Amino acid sequence: MKKSVKELIIHRKSTRNFSKKPIEESILNELKKQGQQSKALYEAISVTFEISKGKEITKKLGVTTGYFGKLFEAPHYLVAITDTKEGYQENMGYQMEQVLLAAQELQIGTCWIAVIHHRQQINEFFNVPRGRTLLALSPIGSEVEPFGYKLLNRSKQSEPSIRKSLDEFVWIDSWDRPYNESKHGSLDGFEAILKDAKLAPSWGNEQPWRVLIEGEQLHLYTIPFKKDEESFNPHKIDCGIFMYYIEALAKEVGIESNWSRESVTIVSPKNFQYIATLKLNRD
Ligand SMILES: Cc1cc2nc3c(=O)[nH]c(=O)nc-3n(C[C@H](O)[C@H](O)[C@H](O)COP(=O)(O)O)c2cc1C
């Protein structure tokens, strides 16, 4: 990528209205390459990205997927299939977001869609082998303005969606000490990193990430997913995207770091679920 990750993150947004015009083959090949080269969060998990015709996907998935069972019409769809080993949802967020940022750099619109319901039938339909699952999709195409938009006199297709402030999702040393800018300052550069990382997309824009900073370690938690009956938790995909943003933004300002799952003993309030810990690589 030529643009910085920071620049891409600041300008990204979901696209939901696509031109019917197919994307050039060379661009689709570039996206496939980005998928193959994307860095995994957990290397033991294998993810494959395929690009399918938009019509095939909307026909196969019907009304089973997307908010309110709605998939967008687009000339192509990126389809992501993964092993279902521990951490696979976070890994998907971390890896697929790299492809979506590459698409953004190529001025291609995308929108995250997670397969939440009817996964067994969908996997059978796509011939996904046991031990793997079709977890996420994104329409791919050029953005167009929705019909009638100009008549409504709107200047932009969509306003940037709102994000929480740091004091709503960051705590320092313990869960009764929310981050306070005047008291805690720049957090050795992590305040700026978190302010950009919080622009990450998330399911329903719920921004489920919760961060506890303890010395040089950053522990990441997620809020529980309210639809308890589902074994699947899309918030973990959101956390994976957030993890990629933090690590990549830190790298751009010269801070090398990596995520790992630790045996963290800090009991969290409100059933927050532990995801992973970021540690700085000092040498
Ligand atoms: C895992 C995941 C699943 C999502 N599923 C959908 C979806 O089914 N339909 C949709 O319109 N947007 C979906 N989104 C997009 C979010 O609604 C969007 O990221 C959020 O509202 C913030 O807006 P922005 O991406 O424009 O910044 C999803 C996002 C994520 C990360």
From TrEMBL:
Keywords: Flavoprotein, FMN, Oxidoreductase. Belongs to the nitroreductase family. Its cofactor is FMN. InterPro entries: Nitroreductase-like, TM1586_NiRdase. PANTHER family: NAD(P)H NITROREDUCTASE YDGI-RELATED, NITROREDUCTASE. Residues 5-248 form the Putative nitroreductase TM1586 domain. CDD domains: Nitro_FMN_reductase. It comes from the Bacteria. This is Nitroreductase. It holds the Pfam family TM1586_NiRdase. GO terms for molecular function: oxidoreductase activity.
